[in-house]
Amino acid sequence: MAMNRRDFLKVGAGASGSLMLSLSLPGCSGLPTGYEQETGEWRPDAWLEITRDDRIYFTLARVEMGQGTYTGLTTLIAEELEVAPGAIEPRFAPVADEYKNPLYKLQLTGGSTSLATSWEPLRTAGAEAREMLIRAAAGVWRVDAKECSASEGRVIHPNGIDSMRYGQLVELASKEILRGDVALKPAAEWKYIGKQNRRLDARAKSTGKAVYGIDVSLPDMVYAVVTRSPRYGGKVQSFNGDEVRAMAGVLEVMEIDRGVAIVADKYWRARKAQDALKVQWNFSEAIDLSTPEVFETYRKAADEDAGESERSEGDTESVLANADKVVEAEYSQPYLAHATLEPMNATAWYRNDHMEIWAPTQAPDLGRIAVARVTDLAPNEVTINTTFLGGGFGRRLTQDYIEEAAAVAFRMDRPVKVIWSREEDARHDLYRPAMLHRMKAGLNKGELSGWDHQIVGPQILNWYVRNAGPAQFPWTPKFLYNTLGKVGVWAEGIATPKDISAIEGAIEYPYQVANIDIRHTHIDPGVPITWWRSVGYSHNGFAVETFMDELAHEAGQDPYQFRRRLLANEPRHREVLDRAARLGGWDTPVPEGRARGIALMRSFGTYVAQVVEAGLEEGSIRVYKVAAAVDCGQVVNPAIVVDQIEGGILFGLTAALYGEITLEQGEVQQSNFHDYPLLRQYERPEVEVEIVDSTETPTGVGEPGVPPVIPALGNALFALTGKRQRTLPLKADA
Questions:
Q1: Is residue 229 part of a domain?
Q2: Is residue 231 one of the residues assigned to a domain?
Q3: Helices 400-409, 364-374: crossing angle, 10 deg rounding
Q4: Its Gene Ontology molecular function terms (predicted)?
C-alpha cells in the first residue's frame, strides 16, 4: 500500500476512538455535533456509530414490538454500508426531534409507517457513511476513491488485495465533506434487501436476554399496583389507607389521579394488600352506559344526522331512487381490547430533580408529557428508556401506565415498578371503538350503479390529542396542555392532520362506480378508545367487503368475478385478488361441509386479498385455510412479511370469532382470557401467503393482514349456511 508514516499515524489515531456519522436525515440538527479529539468520537447526530474495534451501532428510532423494525430498518443501513445486518447492533433511540415520525411529527411507532418512512433516508445514511470511509481510505492510499470499494466492513484497495477496516478510518472519515448526493446501490447489487434474512432479535428473545418493560430490575426497586374506578370517570371518595398501610411489606398507600396506589417491597405483597383495600367511589361524572344503549345512541344519531360528507361523486341519491334494485344493510362491531401478551407496566425512578422511565411504549415523547402532567417536572427533566414491547397493537401509544408509575415514584425515594394484572389490562384498556354502518346500493341489470355508506361512531384523535398536542410543543407551559389538546381537536383538518380513524377503509373505496356518497356521523358515548391494529380499516373493511358480497349475491354473480369486473382501473387490487383466488382454489370444488369466502382491502398502502375456507364443527366455527396475496411494494425481508400477514390473520380471526368488550352500567364485563378468549393453537388454520414481486416503494405489513380476513370469514359462512351475519363477533348458530 502507498502509505507514508504520517498517514499511518492518522489511521492509528482513528483506531483509538469511534466515528458518529452524520446521516443527512430530515431534521437531524438538534443533537450535539463535532469531533472529540480526546476520545476520538465524532458525534453529529448519534444515528450511526463505528468504533475503533469495528463495532457498528444503529440508533433505531422505531420501537420493536414483534413487527420486525429491529431487523428491517437495520437491513437498510447494512445494505448500503456493505456489512451484514448481523454486524450492526441496534439501540433504541432516546427522545429527540431527530427521531420523530415524519408523518405524525411525533416520535411514535404506528400506522405501519416505519419502513415506508425510513426506506430512502436510512439507505442514504448507509451510502453516505460508506462513501466517507472510502474517501478516507483513498486519501491514505493516494488513489482515486472511485477505484476503491467497500465489502464486509472493510475498504478495498484498487489492487483488490490490500484493505483497511472501517474502525481504522473513523477519524479520517470524520473530516470528509460530501458535496451532492451519493448514489444508492442498484437493486441488482443488493445482498440483503429482498433476501430471506434471519431476525436480529430472535436469539435474544429465544434465550430470555431481550429486556421487556416487565423485565426491568433496578437496585432497591419496589412495586406498585393501582386500584382504578370500575367505571370510567369515577373518582376516589375515601379508602381504608391506614389499615392497608399496616400490612406486611406495604410501604405506602396513596391516592393518584387514576385511583389508589399501593406500594410494597414485593409485587405479591402489593397484590395481597390490594385485596384488603376498600375504596368508596364517586360516580357522579362516570359513564353509566350498557352496550345496547351505545348502539341505540348510534342509531338515534344516524337518524337525526346524515353525517359529514367524506367522499361524494355523481348523484347517488337520484341513482338510488331510480335503481332496478336497492339493497340496504346495517353492520355493527363491538368494542375490542388489545390483549397484548405483556400487560401494561412501567418503571419510574425520581432522583436529583429528574425522572427516569423504563417502559414498553410506542410513543416515548408522549411518555415525557405523561410524566410532566402528574409531577412538577418539565418534559426535558424526564428521560424515557424504551424497552422491547410484548405486543403493542396501538395500545401502547397511550401513556396512562407511565402516568401511574411517575405519579407514584414522584412521592417515593426509590425506583417503582407498576404492573397491571391481566384483569386490569382488560377492564381498563382503551378500546377499539364500537361502530355502526348503514349501507345502501343500487343495482341496474346486475351492475352496481350507486354506493351509499354512513359511518357512525367516535374519532380517536379526540382522545389521543390530550398528550399528542403538548408533545409537538414540549416547551409549552403545563397549564396550556389541555388547551393545546382542545385546539388540536378544533383545528382538526386545518392546522392539525385530519382524523381519518373512523373513515379509513371506506373513503378509499376502490370499486368502479360513478355515484358514491360516504359520510361520517360523529357520536362519542364516552367509552375510552385508542388505536387498535388496523384502526378504521378493521371495521370499515368488514362493512364494505361484506356488503360487496351481499351485492354480488343479489346480482346473481360470483363474488370474486363481481369484484374483479369493478376493479378494471385498479391493477394492484386486481392482481392480489386474482392471486388469492388462485392460491385459495376459488374455482375448485370445496370439501363437503365447507365453503369459501373472499375479501380484499388496501390499508396503509399495502394491498391484501384473502380467501378463507371455513365450516362448522360440533357447534363451532372452524377455519381450515386462509390464502393471502400481498403487494407491499419492494420487500426488504420476505420472512417478516409472511410472519406479519400470518399474525394479522390470526389477530383478525380472534376478533371475528371472539372479540367483544361489553358494558353493563358503565362497567366492563370481561376480565381475562376465559371471557375474552384468543384464538388457540389447535384452532390455527393453514395459512399460505404469496408476495407480489414489486419495485414500488415499500409499505407496511404489520396491520394490513387484519381487515380482509374478518369479512372473508363471514362471507364463507354465508356461502355455507345462506345466513348473512352483519354483527361481530360471528356466531356458529346465527
A1: yes
A2: yes
A3: 40
A4: oxidoreductase activity
Q: Give the CA diameter of the chain.
A: 91
Measured CA to CA in angstroms, residue 620 lies from 46, 154, 684 at distances of: 54, 60, 14
**Bridge partners (DSSP) listed for residue 312:** 517
Query: What residues make up the domain containing 259?
Result: 213-284+363-419
**pTM (whole model) above 0.85:** yes
- Answer yes or no: are the C-beta atoms of 603 and 700 closer than 8 Å: no
Number of alpha carbons in the 13 Å side-chain half-sphere of residue 596: 23
All three cell numbers of 112: 405501519
Q: Which residues pair with 42 in a beta bridge?
A: 19, 35
Tens-digit pLDDT profile for residues 653-674: 999 999 999 999 999 999 999 9
Q: What is the mean pLDDT of residues 719-724?
A: 98
Residue 214 phi, psi (nearest 5): -70, -10
Letter for the amino acid at 287? I
Q: State the total domains in the chain.
A: 3
Neighbours of 725 (CB within 10 A): 18
Residue for grid cell 453529529: 44
Within-domain flag for 484:
no
Measured CA angle at 407 (ends 403, 409), to 5 deg: 115
- Nearest in space to 707 (alpha carbons), one of 601, 613, 622, 621: 601
20-34, 204-218, 425-439, 694-708 — which is least confidently predicted? 20-34
Which residues sit opposite 369 in a β-bridge? Answer: none
Torsion angles phi and psi, residue 54, rounded to 5: 70, 20
Contact by Cβ (8 Å): 223, 270? yes
Extended beta strands in 360-475, E state: 382-386, 416-419, 435-444, 447-457
Give me the mean pLDDT over the 566-589 stretch. 98
Mean pLDDT of the chain: 92
Kindly indicate the confidence band of residue 9, based on its pLDDT and cuts at 50, 70 and 90. very low
Give Cα 488 distance to the centre of its chain. Answer: 22
Q: How far is CA 470 from CA 81, 88, 366, 405, in A?
A: 37, 34, 8, 20
